[in-house]
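Subject: sequence -> structure tokens, single chain

Hey, anyone have a minute? Need the predicted structure for the following. Not urgent.
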Amino acid sequence: MDESPIWLLSEMPEEYGLSGDINSEVLTQHARTLINESSATLTLFTEETSSDDEWVGVVMNGSTGNKYTIKDYWIFKLVNNPFIDLNYVVVDKSGNQPTCCWGAN
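Reply:
Had a minute. Here:
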């Protein structure tokens, strides 16, 4: 999705030291290398869901408008990565929906 590490690498390969024949394997390996060499941290997004606030325990993808709750999804935050201020990775706990990743500044 927009502004995920793989998307950014594919859209601006030269800015991240890539050139030549770029395929999904090259993008994945380069993203892994850059993240591992950075000060990035991956944390599980957790918030109490017993609040009256409808946004507690929820993240929203601004591009698609989809809302994801910690009740139904494992939500991870990738911060301090070499690509963008913050990336969310959302994994459906039931395994029925594909994993998605997007970024935000």
